[in-house]
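Self-study notes.
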Amino acid sequence: MFLKEFEIRWNDLDANRHLANITYLSYASETRMAFLQHIGLSHRDLQNKGIGPIVFNEVLFYFKEVMPDDKIRVSFELAGMSEEGTFFSFEHNFFNQEGQNVARCEMMGAWMNLKTRKLCVLPQDIISQFEASNKTLSFKKLTASDTRKHGKTPKDLK
């Protein structure tokens, strides 16, 4: 399992003096990028390939408080991916120093061509890297319809 460790800093806390909501999202994002670097996709590699990951949604579930002076380890697991690699779903579990699962972040996103600003397929070598990574027990092959599973659509101002 891919894990990244974080020390809780003063500015990671909220008014209740526990880990702030935004910090969980930040740690999940940092863990994703560290995983991409781990499989050979640095920022420079992504720029050279002209692709970038985009987030459709992130859902957080909290199980136990994280307090100042704690250390947190955040996991990366592949929860789903479409056949051509366009769509992906990642799961991040947050573990305290005792190894207790204190929170979970489930996110879904896609790969975007940075020139056309449209969704794109991944090269096979990158798909292979993801396929070789740790997967959740509930891993699923995604389709475009999975990206709208929550039924949310834009509501424009009139």
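Second protein, same conventions, sequence then structure:
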Amino acid sequence: MTDDEYLEFSIAHKRKYSIKHLWYQNKDDKVTIGLSDFLAKEIGEILRVILPHADDELDVDDEMLSIWTADEKISFRAPFSGLVSEVNGEVEITPELINDSAYEDGWLIIMDPHELDMEMFLEPEEYVQALAEI
């Protein structure tokens, strides 16, 4: 194996993950959502981010956000229903924040869920194991 067959990425703890490569951090009954560093590294430079508006109501499976690269558009659907309480407008202006700081400055939205069981998401170790099986 050559070095270019390896992908280096980080995993943040105190977060949960989805198999769709989003991270979720629950704090004060709100959930901050972002793109995992794994996906940010795998898809390369992010050129555009489309986020919902603050105060948008999302139902399960509604389109939540989308990410554009030079090669593709990736859409993400809401895994739970809730109210979008805040969006990170900085990533819409400077999408490379996601590539540079997926777990800090590159967060995407904050939602106030109607009902949420965080157990539906993977622990960091489970996410790494799922990635190893892909």
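Instructor comment on the second fold: The longest helix spans residues 124-133.
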